Each structure stands twice: as structure tokens, then as C-alpha cells.
């Protein structure tokens, strides 16, 4: 009995202890949960809305839906027109020089005279990186009217020049070049006072040069040197009377002859003084086949004095020596050449004041 009682007491003791422990554990958990619920939270988390990136398709024109016109004003200046870049340099020059002399009861004597010289030039040059192409077309014509005499021609020129060049890189000023040149005149030329027998006509003579070589061209085009060891020169005389006389080097009855030789040209422009521009042009040519070493010379030297935008003055000289142009030829009654004559140095000097216009 006592043994059974003791066992029962022990079981009741452990059961009571176990229940008390559970009560304490649940109470502690309730206490912890109450403490977490009563905790004050100071941090506020705000999440920014995530907007999708708007991508405007390429090529779509974006236009503002609304435009305010309250603060706009009238356009007072004409908008500048967009000019696309170009590598062409264009020049058009027109010049007119007039010289006049009049006398009234002049004791020293003299005759009234009027001279006029017109000059028209078109320049088209292209230059970009490795290529250069220079073109010039020039017309000159001058007349003189003197009291007691008929009108006389003082100047007559048609000249076209074209030079194409290629270089290896953009640093060098040396180009591989090809050059073409054409010369002739407008109207008949006479050995005044004889006006019945022309000594020259249009394409009598006419000169054509064509060749290849090398060129030295400065970036500002102030210096241009052309050297061609292979140049073809053709002389044309399309007038039966002049060709029958063998004028300008052609065989009698022929209208042309061909030469093959060496050509050297040099052009130089520089400002020597304020408003004073010097222009120099030299051509030297010798033929390999007929008379090698005999050099044809064509040299022009001009000084231009600029008074203002429209008024200028110029003074210049022109020297020509061509072994194919003979002077003082003598013919018999049948028209045969008795004395072929001799070549001479041709010299011309001109001074004029006039108008100049660029367009």
C-alpha cells in the first residue's frame, strides 16, 4: 500500500512539474509576442514606380504638340541659304581699258586717238586631297582709232588651258600632270598700212599643245611649275593663201605640221606692294625632231594696280620668239619664196587704266 502510494505520488509530481513548465513556456512566448507588437517602427519605405524606357524609332520625326507664339517676333533678316561645300574655285573677270588723247591748237603737234582693250577671263579650278584640275579660258581684243586713219587692231587672243594633276599624298606639292593648251585669234591681222593682204586669220595660225609630265603647285596657287619631256605641238594654218606661202612653219600647200618636244612652263603671282599685284607667265618649248636646242619663248609680265573695287590700272610686256615665224619674206611674181626671211623677237608693251568687274 505504501509502495503503491509512493509510486502514485511520484507520477503526480512529475505530471504537475511538466504542466507547470508548459505554462511558463507559453507565458514567456506570449510575453515576447506582446513586446514585438508594441515596438514603434520609425522607418518608412517608399518604392518609386518603375517607368518603362520610351524608345523613339529611328527616322520618326518628333514634333512638339504645342508651340507658344506669345514671345516670338518678326524675322528682320533674311535667313542665310544653306550652301553645300564645294571644292571648285570659280572666277569670272571682265576688264575694259580705254585710252584717249585729244588736241586743240596744240603747238607741239599731235593727232587725236582713242584706244580700247577688252579682257574676259573664266577660271574653273578644282582641288581636293589628291586631285587638282585647273582650267582657264581667256579672250582679249583691242582696237585703236586715230585721226586720219582707219581702225586698227592692237590685240587679239583666244587661249584655253587645262591641267590635270594627281599626287600620292596630301603633304607633297608635286603632281603627276597632263596639260592641254589651245591658242588662236578672232579676226584678220594686217601689216599696216596694207589692208588687202592678211598676214594671219582665225586658226591661221592655231596652236595645240598636249603632253604629260610633273607639276609643282603651292597650296595657295602662287607658284605653278610644269615640266613635260613628252609634249606634242600642232600648228594649224587653215587659210589657203597663207598655207601656200608656207606661213608659220608649214610646208607650202599643207595646213598643219606636228612637233614633239620638251615643254617648261612657270607661272608666279605675288603682291609686291599694297594694291600692286605682279603676274608672271613663261613658256619654253624645244622640238626633238626638227631643231632640238632651238627654244621657242613666250613670256608675259604684268603689274596690276588696284585703285578700288571697280577701277584699276595695269602695265605689262609680252615677248615672243618662235623660229617658225619668219619676217621679211620675199616672193617672186609667181608666188614662190625667194628669201624665206628670218625669225625675230616680238615685243609688245601696254599701259591702260580702266574698269574691272568680277562676277
Structure description:
- The chain is mainly beta and 359 residues long.
- It has one domain: Beta Barrel (Outer membrane phospholipase (ompla), Chain C), CATH 2.40.230.
- It is 11% helix and 48% strand.
- It has two helices and 16 strands.
- It has helices at 2-37, 240-244; strands at residues 88-101, 113-128, 131-146, 152-166, 174-184, 189-190, 198-200, 206-217, 223-236, 256-273, 276-287, 295-306, 311-321, 330-331, 337-339, 346-358.
- The protein has a twelve-stranded antiparallel beta barrel with strand order 1-2-3-4-5-8-9-10-11-12-13-16. A two-stranded antiparallel sheet has the order 6-7.
- A hairpin with a 7-residue loop joins strand 11 and strand 12 (295-306).
Question: What labels would you give this structure?
Answer:
359 residues; mainly beta; Outer membrane phospholipase (ompla), Chain C; twelve-stranded antiparallel beta barrel; two-stranded antiparallel ribbon; 2 helices; 16 strands; 11% helix
Helical residues, percent: 10-25%
Strand order of the largest sheet: 1-2-3-4-5-8-9-10-11-12-13-16
Measured by DSSP, the beta-strand proportion falls in over 45%
Rg (CA only): 49 Å
| Through-space gap between termini | 145 Å
Structural class: mainly beta
Number of spatially distinct domains: 1
Question: How are the SSEs placed, and which strands pair?
Answer:
Layout: H1 2-37, E1 88-101, E2 113-128, E3 131-146, E4 152-166, E5 174-184, E6 189-190, E7 198-200, E8 206-217, E9 223-236, H2 240-244, E10 256-273, E11 276-287, E12 295-306, E13 311-321, E14 330-331, E15 337-339, E16 346-358
Antiparallel strand pairs: 1-2, 1-16, 2-3, 3-4, 4-5, 5-8, 6-7, 8-9, 9-10, 10-11, 11-12, 12-13, 13-16, 14-15
Amino acid at each position: 500500500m505504501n509502495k503503491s502510494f509512493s509510486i502514485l505520488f511520484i507520477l503526480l509530481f512529475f505530471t504537475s512539474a511538466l504542466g507547470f513548465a508548459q505554462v511558463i513556456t507559453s507565458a514567456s512566448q506570449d510575453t515576447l509576442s506582446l513586446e514585438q507588437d508594441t515596438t514603434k517602427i520609425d522607418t518608412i519605405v517608399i518604392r518609386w514606380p518603375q517607368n518603362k524606357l520610351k524608345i523613339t524609332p529611328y527616322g520618326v520625326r518628333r514634333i512638339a504638340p504645342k508651340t507658344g507664339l506669345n514671345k516670338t517676333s518678326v524675322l528682320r533678316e533674311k535667313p542665310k541659304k544653306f550652301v553645300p561645300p564645294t571644292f571648285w574655285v570659280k572666277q569670272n573677270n571682265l576688264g575694259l581699258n580705254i585710252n584717249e588723247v585729244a588736241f586743240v591748237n596744240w603747238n607741239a603737234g599731235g593727232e587725236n586717238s582713242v584706244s580700247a582693250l577688252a579682257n574676259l577671263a573664266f577660271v574653273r579650278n578644282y582641288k581636293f586631297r589628291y586631285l587638282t584640275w585647273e582650267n582657264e579660258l581667256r579672250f582679249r581684243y583691242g582696237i585703236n582709232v586715230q585721226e586720219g586713219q582707219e581702225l586698227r587692231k592692237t590685240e587679239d587672243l583666244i587661249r584655253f588651258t587645262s591641267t590635270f594633276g594627281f599626287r600620292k599624298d596630301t603633304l607633297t606639292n608635286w603632281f603627276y600632270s597632263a596639260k592641254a593648251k589651245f591658242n588662236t585669234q578672232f579676226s584678220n591681222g594686217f601689216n599696216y598700212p596694207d589692208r588687202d593682204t592678211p598676214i594671219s586669220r582665225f586658226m591661221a595660225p592655231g596652236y595645240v599643245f598636249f603632253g604629260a609630265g610633273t607639276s609643282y603647285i603651292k597650296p595657295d596657287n602662287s607658284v605653278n611649275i610644269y615640266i613635260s619631256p613628252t609634249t606634242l605641238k600642232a600648228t594649224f594654218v587653215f587659210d589657203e593663201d597663207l598655207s601656200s606661202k608656207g606661213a608659220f612653219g608649214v610646208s607650202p600647200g599643207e595646213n598643219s605640221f606636228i612637233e614633239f618636244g620638251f615643254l617648261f612652263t612657270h607661272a608666279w603671282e605675288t603682291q609686291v606692294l599694297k594694291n600692286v599685284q605682279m603676274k608672271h607667265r613663261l613658256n619654253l618649248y624645244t622640238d626633238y625632231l626638227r631643231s632640238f636646242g632651238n627654244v621657242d619663248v613666250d613670256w608675259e609680265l604684268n603689274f596690276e594696280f588696284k585703285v578700288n573695287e571697280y577701277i584699276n590700272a595695269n602695265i605689262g610686256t609680252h615677248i615672243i620668239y618662235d623660229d617658225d615665224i619668219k619676217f621679211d619674206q620675199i616672193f617672186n611674181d609667181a608666188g614662190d619664196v625667194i628669201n624665206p626671211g628670218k625669225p625675230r623677237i616680238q615685243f609688245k608693251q601696254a599701259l591702260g587704266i580702266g574698269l574691272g568687274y568680277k562676277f
